[in-house]
Amino acid sequence: MDRIRIVGGNALNGIIPISGAKNAALPLMIASLLTSDTLTLENVPHLADVEGLIRILGNHGVDIAVNGRREHQDGSYSRTVHFTCRTVADTTAPYELVSKMRASFWVIGPLLAREGQARVSLPGGCAIGTRPVDLFIEGLTALGAEMEIDGGYINAKAPKGGLIGARYTFPKVSVGATHVMLMAASLARGTTVIGNAAREPEVVDLANCLNAMGAKISGAGTSTITIEGVTSLSGARHRVLPDRIETGTYAMAVAMTGGDVTLSGTDITLLDTAIEAIRRAGAEVSAVDGGIRVIGHGDAIRPVDIVTEPFPGFPTDLQAQFMGLMTRAHGVSHVTETIFENRFMHVQELARLGAKITLSGQTARIEGVTRLRGAPVMATDLRASVSLVIAGLAAEGETMVSRVYHLDRGFERLEEKLTRCGAIVERISD
Ligand SMILES: CC(=O)N[C@H]1[C@@H](OP(=O)(O)OP(=O)(O)OC[C@H]2O[C@@H](n3ccc(=O)[nH]c3=O)[C@H](O)[C@@H]2O)O[C@H](CO)[C@@H](O)[C@@H]1O
Ligand SMILES: C=C(OP(=O)(O)O)C(=O)O
Fold it and tell me: Is the Cβ–Cβ distance between 175 and 149 less than 8 Å?
């Protein structure tokens, strides 16, 4: 199993190219199930989750052609992938595949809309909470589907003639359930109005792509989304939006190690709340042509309290990384997690590096320390693992991160990107 070895203490200087967003690419890829034409996606990141979903879509009958990568001067490369699902080969998404990645459960929306039925295993994904699927069941039921749980699977059946547009208001904001409702309602008869929809940029990206395919969606990015159903969707070409979580992660790394880094190919407006928190912590962050410039001052980090919330609030997917940053702040800060009930697995691992963190319910109290010391640590989930990497970059001596398969789900060429900016980071394959 691969490990990542980090020797901390170097400031980061240079350019880090930001990849296409994992959390946008996954629903966009799934949208290819809605049409018999080709959906072409540009800027698709090369990640374990994307490769996993390619296998899952293949099982449903999607032909996939990957165009070679093109290296750019800043070290970035773009991958264009063509997805064609002439006919759906199988409406079952089996446990062996779906249990590895939560987002693969979302195939339930397009399968139900296009084929009138789906049998999809209950999902897996990061162990950060119970992560139920009640909102998907309620939402699709509102569109007229019969939903039944049987042997660890959801059996979904559309009424004769297909799904029917309806008004449905989510009792709680869910990114995944909003994605699924957008895809399902696009091919329903009549108009659907979704209340309390997720407003994340990845939802807007999916809506834009579906509209390019012929859907009639308005209001994405607000809490009320209206979808006028159409009888069929066509192919389209769409560019996956930049990864705001990767952007925020590297910005926090620079804030922690010090240095001057341009994050290229990204957009500051995707993560206003996180940028504001990083600025309050003492780093200088500005929009520059084609990206964001971050100047960190390493030893002069100020304590900042944050609370995770659905977009546009502080993203839960940056909570662990921000806690890493706060471990070296001058003073006490508080990090409150409101989205997932078990997203503090990084706390005990950060403690191995010398961090002083105490937990009380959903709030962590972090007492900044003057220095962290390298140690062996274990990745427990995707974002927790990268928080250990950035803490390792700022720690004295060697940090060895094990179980890096978590990291490979969501961070493309992490060692390479950091090494190019002066960090000592290497992958050790045992
Ligand atoms: C692949 C992807 O895009 N994953 C992101 C997506 O996950 P995901 O779409 O799974 O997260 P949700 O927005 O659905 O979850 C938000 C909250 O709603 C709850 N919930 C959700 C569905 C449901 O049927 N019932 C229910 O109670 C969840 O347990 C959680 O407490 O949004 C999360 C919140 O921004 C991010 O952390 C994940 O990185
Ligand atoms: C939690 C995440 O992914 P997933 O929803 O696939 O578990 C994540 O991207 O941080």
Answer: no
Domains of the chain plus CATH, in order, are: 3-18+243-428 (3.65.10.10), 22-229 (3.65.10.10)
Instruction: Tabulate helix, strand, coil % of the chain (nearest 5).
Output: 35, 30, 35
pLDDT digits (tens, 9 = 90+) for 156-171: 999 999 999 999 999 9
Query: How many Å lie between the centroid of ligand 1 and the Cα of residue 131?
Result: 7
Residues acting as catalytic residues: 126
102 lines ligand 1 (CB under 6 A): yes
Residue 237 CA, distance from chain mean position: 21
Q: What is the predicted ipTM?
A: 0.98
Q: Check pocket membership of 23 for ligand 2, CB cut-off 6 A.
A: yes
pLDDT tens for 243-285 read 999 999 999 999 999 999 999 999 999 999 999 999 999 999 9
DSSP state string for 125-168: --SSS----HHHHHHHHHTT-EEEEETTEEEEEPPTT--B--EE
What separation in Å is there between the alpha carbon of 173 and the centre of ligand 1?
8
Phi-psi label, residue 103: left if phi above 0, alpha if psi -120 to 50, beta otherwise: alpha
**Residue identifier of the C-alpha nearest atom 12 of ligand 1:** 174
For the full predicted model, state whether its pTM sits above 0.95.
yes
pLDDT, tens digit, for every residue of 230-240?
Answer: 999 999 999 99
Using DSSP's 3-state secondary structure scheme, residue 1 falls into: coil
Q: Which of 100, 409, 411 to mutate to test the pocket of ligand 2 (most atoms within 8 A of CB)?
A: 409
Going from the Cα of 128 to the center of ligand 2, the distance in angstroms, rounded, reads: 9
